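Subject: for your reference before the review

Hello V.,

The reviewers asked for a structural picture of the protein, and I figured it would be easier to keep everything in one thread rather than splitting it across files. Below is the amino acid sequence we used in the manuscript, unchanged from the supplementary table.
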Amino acid sequence: MYRSNKDSGWSWVVCCGSFIAFLLETGIVKALRLLLPSLKEQFSTNTWVIGLIISLAPGFGAITSFSFGAEAITTAALPIYFDKFYDTSNGITHAGISISFMILPPLTQFLLDTYGWRGTLLILGGLNLHLVLCGALLRPLKISKIDYNHDSINDLSLKRTAFTSTTLVNKLKNLVQYMDPDLLKRSSFLNLLCMVTTSGYCFTGWVIYFVPHCEDLGFLPFKSALLATIGGVGYLAGTIVFPIAGRVLSAKTILYVSAVVMTLALATDSVMRVFNSYIGIMLSSFAVNIGFAVSFCCVFKELVVVVEEDKLSNAVNWIFVGYSIGSISSGFLSGWLYDRFGNYIKSFLFLSVVSALSVTPWLASGFKKAIKRSQRRDYSIIKDTDIKLNKK
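And here is what came back from the structure prediction:
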């Protein structure tokens, strides 16, 4: 028998590795979007082409998260290493995104001015090699025999046979079974998946096109990068607010509030750009990233509740697949809207519309439950009335 080492010292080492993984994997997208004008000019192509290529950086890793993908793996690992302090570790991990917003935009701008876009890409690639070290920190914890169940054994066996079967058909069948498509039949999980997909669309659209949009309005590159840094401060504030709000409000309420904040901030951002207000854009950048941070943290907290522990790894993978679909779609569509209308205002306005749609499944589910409760109440009243009449 072994004692569980959850919430132990090594767990916090893994949490630091997850923090760095989020910092680097999200930061590379934030850094690449600073190269968008240079790459567009260098290759004489449309905005949506460069945006789509940049969005593939997080999108490809998320789509392949059933096999690899830094953010998906580290996110799935946190419940293994944490129990009592899971919310805290989740917040620390997502704080890596905010730190990347604060340090990588000015760093990338400096590298771009000094070494050009080729040298900048070379240095950013070297930074991302540190993800290997983050993966090396993930090692098995000693657990008690009570926690070691047959489901985990079958899951590992299925994963092994998915890639060692002799025929291609068997490989595909085993792989589909390993992906656990039954999760998609759960309405509670689909609601979370929809939330992440729409949030991924809005988040990636903001990350890729925010600075180019500011420069398009006439702001200097340094001031545009500073606005992105303010957004990073907002994301950090969101990771701090989330554990506090989680003690008072339910996960669904937090998701509703974060969706409203994101929608209003993105809509306000579009209005401020019409009036070319630097302070207004700064405030909307701060607010929308608070919404992003709270939304993503809350999704993963709720995921632990609605999905069993032995299915959590596949559930996280599906979540990142949904995120990648939204991310890649935003890289293409937001850039296409710019090429079509000649400015980013409509692109960001459409981001606010997509953000408003993020809670639609939750509202529809709640509306259906309210109708069922009303029908049961009416049936109970009719039944009681019939009983009283029969007695008379």
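For the response letter, the relevant points are probably these. The chain has one domain: 9-358. Residues 9-358 form a domain with the Growth Hormone; Chain: A; fold (CATH 1.20.1250.20).

Happy to draft the paragraph if you're swamped.

O.
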